[in-house]
Specification:
Number of helices: 7
Oligomer: single chain
Strand order of the largest sheet: 1-3-2
Number of strands: 3
Structural class: mainly alpha
Distance between the termini: 72 Å
Length: 184
């Protein structure tokens, strides 16, 4: 019986040392749903970081890419082209309001722009960064620029009233990341 008592006593001492120690209990292995959740969170974080990095190039092209960067000059030219197109759109809109009538007015708000010929914008999905730059950096909130493909397959630049603009899911997601990362 004394062997049993001494075994319990030794076990009690070991147990008291373990309870008193600051060592945390080993983390249980992740269940499949937690592992999946972690992967989703990591993918979301990577997506947000990539969006923020890309938008930073549009917001600060020369600071992010360098003063002599061809890409920075290209982005700055694209921003200038977008502002010029917006000014032209506003001038036509104002002329319609001032001089047009119900029967006589400029009807199609289609603008030829070098932006409409860039694959990165027409098919690459980067036009959302210019849309956000125009909205947040230039304060243009009444309209949203968009590239529309015509019957001949060529793209044109149009300005759509903000209330009528319908962004796809990816555009909404990118815009939300940009707004959260830079403007909140």
């Amino acid at each position: 019986m004394s062997e049993i008592a001494s075994a319990f006593s030794a076990f009690g001492k070991k147990l008291s040392r373990f309870v008193q120690s600051d060592a945390a209990a080993p983390e249980p292995p992740l269940r499949a749903d937690k592992l999946t959740q972690r992967k989703i969170m990591e993918a979301d974080e990577a997506f947000s970081a990539a969006v923020a990095k890309t938008y930073a190039k549009y917001r600060f092209p020369y600071q992010m890419l360098g003063e002599h960067s061809h890409e920075a000059r290209s982005i700055a030219r694209d921003e200038d082209a977008l502002v010029a197109a917006y000014r032209l759109f506003c001038a036509v809109r104002d002329a319609n309001e001032q001089f047009g009538t119900d029967q006589t007015r400029i009807k199609d708000d289609v603008i030829a722009s070098p932006l409409a010929g860039k694959t990165a914008y027409t098919q690459g999905g980067d036009f959302v960064y210019l849309q956000c730059w125009l909205r947040y950096e230039q304060g243009v909130t009444d309209v949203v620029p968009q590239l529309a493909q015509g019957k001949e397959g060529l793209y044109t630049l149009q300005f759509v009233p903000s209330a009528a603009f319908r962004a796809d899911y990816k555009t909404k997601e990118i815009t939300a990341v940009i707004q959260d990362a830079f403007y909140r």
